[in-house]
Design goal:
With about 300 residues, this protein is of the alpha+beta class. About 50% of the residues lie in helices and about 10% in strands.
């Protein structure tokens, strides 16, 4: 079926949003197993002109499938209205041309986004997406050729590293220890991931975060070990659809400074505050477009 909402599927999938790794790319299709009301469903999407050609295989209704797809790709967001917003601001007006069709790629599973975002800190897109894909294969549920992300209660039981696995199992040779988080390439982030898994199993109800105000949600997420303000805002934007979040790091700082402050050196916290106040409910989309505009236009090279 054709879903008539404009989108650039490949750009959205490959844009490095920390909601999840890109879906499996076969031919011109992006395919993944998605849980819809705890039921595994295989989603298959491909570009059809400006729109999506969508098929699914699973025990749910078409209405349920389309609703979940609309959420994941944020298809109810008025992209053309957002472009009018960009065009009305001198500093932003060139961005739509470089990022046309780019949408939020929201997490079907907010817990996966939390772990993805922790893994992305000080990491390349290639490395964190490979790590998350390996975690899914190791401890997630298999559905045909695809895997859903492990639940927090399952990931909380995973060994941290080779030493933890060796000391807690019957394996006689530490060189044979492969069933642990560090073996997925997550490095120093492994303890943060396990602690987050414990917190969202025993103390924090993910469903309640969707009902919170942005400030309440931020104060909840920032308590998770390994989560600073930038990672917290990534989690809130890509995992819970808080569009007022403005994830800010050194690159966003440089871009904002160039566009709005004549290159003046301003702090990352001030950039985050400025972005949220200046762009309001458009902050998350503006940040997404800023970053990709800087990459695609050559601005990022100039700012290094």
């Amino acid at each position: 079926m054709i879903i008539k909402a404009p989108i650039n599927l490949e750009l959205t999938q490959m844009s490095g949003q920390t909601s999840q790794p890109p879906w499996v790319h076969i031919g011109d299709s992006f395919t993944q197993a998605v849980l819809v009301d705890s039921k595994p469903v295989i989603f298959d999407v491909r570009q059809s002109g400006d729109y999506l050609d969508f098929n699914f295989n699973g025990d749910i209704s078409q209405k349920e499938a389309v609703s979940k797809l609309n959420y994941i790709y944020d298809l109810d967001f008025d992209l053309n209205g957002f472009y009018r917003y960009l065009n009305s601001h001198e500093e932003l007006k060139d961005m739509a041309g470089f990022c046309n069709g780019l949408r939020l790629f929201l997490a079907p599973d907010p817990f996966e986004c939390i772990i993805s975002s922790i893994c992305s800190a000080n990491n390349s897109i290639k490395r964190w997406t490979q790590s998350l894909s390996q975690i899914k294969k190791n401890w997630g549920m298999r559905h045909g050729d695809y895997y859903t992300f492990p639940q927090s209660c399952d990931l909380a039981k995973v060994y941290l590293d080779e030493e933890d696995e060796f000391n807690s199992s019957n394996i006689q040779d530490i060189e044979s220890c492969r069933n642990n988080l560090k073996n997925c390439g997550v490095g120093y982030r492994a303890p943060y991931m396990r602690r987050a898994s414990e917190l969202f199993t025993l103390e924090i109800d993910l469903r309640e975060i969707f009902e919170m105000s942005y400030d309440e949600a931020f104060e909840t997420i920032i308590k998770v070990p390994g989560v600073g303000p930038k990672v917290a805002d990534c989690i809130l934007l890509y995992g819970f659809n808080f569009k007022e979040a403005f994830p800010s790091d050194v690159w966003i700082k440089r871009i904002v400074s160039h566009l709005y402050f004549d290159g003046k050196d301003i702090s990352v916290p001030k950039v985050r505050e400025f972005g949220m106040e200046e762009f309001g409910k458009n902050a998350g989309y503006v940040q997404l477009y800023m970053f990709h505009y800087a990459r695609m236009s050559g601005l990022m090279t100039k700012l290094k």
